[in-house]
Amino acid sequence: MQDLLIVVDMQNDFITGALGTAEAVRIVPRAAEIIQEFQGKVFFTRDTHGEDYLDTQEGRKLPVPHCIRGTEGWQICPELAPFCKEAPIDKGTFGASDLGKLLEELDRECPVRSITFIGLCTDICVISNALLAKAFLGEAEIVVDASACAGVTPESHKTALAAMKMCQIQVTGEE
Predict the structure, then answer these.
(1) How far apart are CA 103 and CA 4, in angstroms?
(2) Peptide linkage before 121 cis (omega within 30 of 0)
(3) Of 125, 24, 11, the residue nearest 73 (C-alpha)
């Protein structure tokens, strides 16, 4: 059996850049601690948009260019980049369809016991990918460590955690 850790979108634009928040900055040391202590495989996702971002559905609904491929804001934050041993899973939408395929492949090689999620934003990409993992590997324990997650707002972070609990996702690390 194997355990996986998915680090969701810990990119400069979500921490100190275009969509950064004080809460996001605060979780970086905790995320580093969790990654260092994790006894299993670690994967990173990376929100990835093109120069045409404002012409996309997301761009029209959130007209703040961010995580444009190749920019500094698109990069994994410097504090966590050294832990990213494999190329991040680039994703153009909230949920990473390639993550689902990877999870199935890993489960075929050696059954996945648990998948832990940390990162940003709890209420958009963390919840989307946790539910995606639940859909692809329904018998694996899906865990979200709230101590290393931050939402768009503290209120939406709490709402997302409550929603995930209702979907049988284990939430740990709550204050």
Answers:
(1) 9
(2) yes
(3) 11
C-alpha–C-alpha distance, residues 63 and 121, integer Å? 17
11 with 47: CB under 8 angstroms? yes
Give the tokens for residue 26: 């605060």
- pLDDT tens digit sequence for 93-123: 898 989 999 999 999 999 999 999 999 999 9
Tell me, what's the pLDDT at 115?
A: 98
Which residue blocks in 21-148 are alpha helix, DSSP H?
A: 22-37, 57-61, 97-109, 127-136
| Tokens of residue 150, six digits | 């931050």
State the Cα angle at 133 between 73 and 143, rounded to 5°.
Answer: 85
